Amino acid sequence: GQIPQNHYCLLEDIRLQGTPEQQAHFFGLALQGHRFANALSETGGKHVQDIQATIRREGDGYVINGRKGYCTGSLYAHWLAVLALDEQQNAQLAFVPRGTEGLVVVDDWDSMGQRTTSSGTVLAQDLRVPAFNLFPTHKSYDSPTLAGPFAQLTTAAIDAGIARAALRDTVQFVQRFARPWIDAGVEKASEDPLTIIQVGALDIRLEAAEALLDR
């Protein structure tokens, strides 16, 4: 879920910010099966928009330097969208083919959940980018768009799916392995009224979340 979420959000960025020529090029790549992943966030800042990566003009292109974290899908993508600030502190989004010299994808994602999202580190070390691959993402909020709500909706759907799987696994564990409390007066833990109430309450809240997503 996380991998297509990033892919489609970046395609929306291209639709909103790209020239007709850029849209034709990158949408064509997507139709050929190319996958896009992000290198947006950074670790250690005061807040999520505290970006330290820089991009500067050099010749007929640009050079990016910086360290990115939580780069979901980076190991599986054909292209990475790298966020950096220019000399005027405007955010620019550069689309870079994975394998480009100066772009280092680090396989260091180690988490308890979502282990295969590949949300590790990406390094930009004197990374050269042609001007054609640059998108003025700082203009994204000059007018209202559905880019933000789309990203939030898909993320919420992923979280709801995780919750549904966790609840299913909980029920299966109780049915197969758990023992009833000594004072419950039942033979199986799955027949304990308190357990049924708690699981039912979780299921009701999850049903409400899923219904809200459907709307």
TrEMBL record:
GO cellular component, one term: cytoplasm
Pfam short name (any one): Acyl-CoA_dh_2
Tagged with keyword Oxidoreductase: yes
Keywords linked to the UniProt accession: Oxidoreductase
This protein's record includes keyword Zinc: no
Residue ranges of every copy of the Acyl-CoA oxidase/dehydrogenase middle domain listed in the record: 42-123
Acyl-CoA dehydrogenase C-terminal domain ranges (all copies): 154-214
One BP term from GO: fatty acid beta-oxidation using acyl-CoA dehydrogenase
Gene Ontology MF terms in the entry: acyl-CoA dehydrogenase activity; oxidoreductase activity, acting on paired donors, with incorporation or reduction of molecular oxygen, reduced flavin or flavoprotein as one donor, and incorporation of one atom of oxygen
InterPro entries named in the record: Acyl-CoA_dehydrogenase, Acyl-CoA_DH_C, Acyl-CoA_Oxase/DH_mid-dom, Acyl-CoA_Oxase/DH_mid-dom_sf, AcylCoA_DH/oxidase_NM_dom_sf
Protein name (Swiss-Prot/TrEMBL): Acyl-CoA dehydrogenase family protein
Source organism of the structure: Pseudomonas reactans
Lineage per the UniProt record: Bacteria, Pseudomonadati, Pseudomonadota, Gammaproteobacteria, Pseudomonadales
